[in-house]
Amino acid sequence: MLNSCADSLDITPEDRQSITNAFDDDDELMGFLISIEGYIQRVIKNDSHQAMGAAADRCDNSGYSNLRDLVPATVTSSFYSDWSPYYDIIYLCNLMLENVHQAEGNISQERIDFYISQAKFCKGWMYFELGRIWGNAIITTSTNNFEPYANSTDYEVIAEAINNMEEAYEMLGSYGELTDNNGELLLSKQYGTKGAAAGLLAHIYAWQGSMAELYNWPGISSSEAYEQSIKWSTKLISGEDSGLYNLAIDIPTMLEQNFSGWEPSTRLMASESILEVQRFYLEDNSVGYISPIIERYVTWPVDYNDGTSTIEGAAVTFKFEASTIQNMYKGEDERKETYFYKVDSMATAGHQFSYPYKVSNGVFRVVSQTTGITRMTGLDCNNIYIRLAGIYLLRAECYAKLGNEANAITDLNTIRNRAKAELYPAEGDADIQYAIFKEREKELLMENGRYYDVLRNNYIDTELPPAFALLSDQDIQDGALYLNIGEAAFTNNTLLKQNIYWYRVQ
């Protein structure tokens, strides 16, 4: 995967003759799967909601500021609203599922099942993304169907994600067991595994239950969805039938194991990481890496070409006041001085902002052979999509919503205890659900997904930028929390309908 290039795969529906010859053996199928994974590397990065929900005291990027202010011209621009890459992946998954049988007799049934499970895993993952980002999206059928598609409802899209992911789970192997076409272990955690599928199902069911409450989804029991999320979370926490994942003993160890190193070989020790988007750096480190939201916070000292003054200018998108971090991580909480660089001493020295250090090493390339000047082109880590600490807190959230406060507190305190933070109830703690939400914010700070955490807990008025508090209940029901559907999606499709809210405000 490190050398994959999705652009090298040029398949169009008219090429049926060439497509039918592309699935005859293990080498061809593995090459096709690598191409799918290459597309995923480009899709799972910074959807607009990541910027909308990112925790920060200041946002100094005009595009992201406009997103956070819900400026219609920005939110509806093609740059922020194009869903076609997600459907490209779904199309390729369907293509594999429809043609993998051609390899029968050439490879074992076990290998055929491997490719089927990977395609279903990727397909379910993409429908989850579509359902969270755009809501009333499209559910496609076969690759031979070129008729217009109408919108499916948001709850139907999420149900499609669940169906594919549960089918994938039954067929997938555990991390450390999967092999490629040459029998070599697949060490990248971007591939589908039982653990990754369980983690996604825990999130999908938690989302389903929460949105059923927010939008009054018909025929869906929130409590049953939360129970399902707990079930899938427990599979990961217990190690039952999904591989063995463990919390690191302390925060420094967690960072060293999980946020240091991007090569697949480094992921063996990252026992807390469940699902990642794999980076791949070319020899000159100039292109080809994922840009997760955390990069929008990082400056000196990770980038040694910067200085302490860099964060004060407009070059860094998201910033935290030093006092914010001091108030967030109180007492002996290890996350203050590991997620950020010398917060207290830097503040005492007069520095207004904190300096993110959760990923402490960058990847640099030489930009001048004459002078040896370098430029940081990325961070030395993968884009971690799900890790076990987040699963503990997701399970705690679902326990709290079901009224099981004792179990919710146990899971919450497991994470606080690991961080050496005060156990619940501590000074300043509110109700248990909000305490869990804030703990997810503290533990997963600068990682993906805070926007969706806010929506699941319906803290829209208080935990998102001020523009969201101005939305009416009707605005929310009309789709203000989803994205506008990009204009290109309407080409030759008279059945597709635009998001009501964004159609109304444009």
Automatic annotation (TrEMBL):
It is found in: Cell outer membrane. Keywords: Cell outer membrane, Membrane, Signal. The keyword Mitochondrion does not apply. Residues 76-205 form the SusD-like N-terminal domain. It holds the Pfam family SusD_RagB. Residues 320-465 form the RagB/SusD domain. GO terms for cellular component: cell outer membrane. InterPro entries: SusD-like_N, SusD_RagB_dom, TPR-like_helical_dom_sf. Belongs to the SusD family. This is SusD-like protein. It comes from Formosa agariphila (strain DSM 15362 / KCTC 12365 / LMG 23005 / KMM 3901 / M-2Alg 35-1).
